[in-house]
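Intended use. Records like the one below are meant for learning the mapping from a protein sequence to its folded structure. Do not use them to infer anything beyond what is encoded.
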Amino acid sequence: MHDMHTYDIPHQAMSPRIAWPLLAAFVAVFAHAAENPFTSQADALAAPDFLPVDEAFVLEAALSPDGEVVAQWRMPDGYYLYRERFRFEAQGGAELGELVIPAGVEKTDEFFGDVEVYYAGVTVSAPVLATAGDHLEVGIEYQGCADYGLCYPPEKRSFTFAVASLGGTGAEGGEGGEAAAADGAAVGAAATANAGLLAALGGAFLGGLILNLMPCVFPVLSIKVLSLLGGGAGRGRHALGYAAGVLTAFIALGAALAIFKASGEAVGWGFQLQAPGFVAGMAILFFVLALNLLGFLEMPAFGVSGGQVGHFATGVLAVVAATPCTVPFMGVALGYGLSQSTWALLGVMAALGVGMALPYVLVTTIPPVARRLPRPGPWMVTLKQAMAFPMLLTVVWLLWVAARQSGPGAVAATLSACVATGFLAWLAWGRGARLPATWAGVAVVAALAIWAAPGLKAEAAPAGDSFVMDEVAANRAAGRPVFLNFTAAWCITCLANERSTLGTERIQDFFGERSIEQVKADWTNADPAITAALESFGRNGVPLYVYYPPGGAPVLLPQVLTPAIVIDTVESADARA
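Structure written out for the chain above:
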């Protein structure tokens, strides 16, 4: 065991005034991202505003005095339910009779062909044939669509009804039976809500843990590696500062999502990366971090031995860098949070933050682990410089995203800003007295690039394939299977799936053999129609993969794909259809 101490890499003294220009640059980045990261309100109104599933199909269920489970749905105009999708399933040894379903309306549906559907509302019941215990648990499954062209995935709700006694096929009647039914419905709704929230929090926590393994976070974690190795006895305080930054950033992002949703904007995970100005600002920021790690430009609090403010800022930066990535468990949890109250959304975001920060906190605060860390020394200077190159690779990736969003003009503006920043760093190199003026110049250069990037968008800028849900509907009506791919140029998980699975010869040949039509929904730029489509599947970010078998219900695939997963999912769905 070696003595723990702090090793400071030599650096130039800095004036506290340096922080003010840096703060101005950060404010400019985030202010521009919030200014108008979306399409105009007129564009948003032009696209259908799809309701969350619980608002599109309002379900109430009760146990009647006559011993029947009665479910009643109410739908706003433009939404309908399928007759053949109703399912009642008793749990725990109870038994239900056949469903009693009224006649519906004949419809040639774009998803399932000639079907019988219900508009406005419908009541479905099933007699109770046998119970087991004092409570009756029933799962109710249904599926509906919107006339605008979106089909919701099958939904299942669980209800628990208090049963005083049931004789034969009847329940105890009178007001007592109605009260028991009402109490049972309330118990079922509360239990379902609590279970959903706990599942979302657990999924968010696991998603936060997995985020640490994603390449989008590696450049920022490199800064924390340096801090971890050089922090000495103050590692615990550094870890808490980093964790506070992560939690604050996630909660702030959740609050922004809630505000935008309340104002009618179509938003989702990673929405800020749809703003060209934000992408340009991030590219410049990562370029500055690379210069800092190479020793060409002193950046307050981002060295190996930065103070608590620096560790907090690193936590915030880690969250911003993580937004291009979506990992297993996270998409469902975020979709749930956005469909519930603001407090539920903030709870999900906080759980994500706890999951992301926990590994670093544990490593730095558990003494047996901390004692096994390498001894600090001059070798850390070389490591610090090596860590600059992942930062520069991140700049290259962000420039590629800018090219996809806005074309070469935005790329040229961002590269020019990087060159100007490098020139300013060269002027101040080894001259500490020039640093305040240098940082003021960097702030001005960054602000100009952020302001200019959106206005340089080329008319024919490559923005990916246009997303038209009618294309899915047309193929469905013709009886052809469809693979719907929600993606974005800034989504690293999406790009990895394209390279490892969807773009491979094996999968393309498989799709060709089965005549599967591939439809891509490119969310690189803001598109309210794509956001609404994502919400209809209970998601608020990419990637999302949906397979429509011929004549069957849509099936959602995992967010991380392999060729075997795609093939098995398609074959299983086709076999059930």
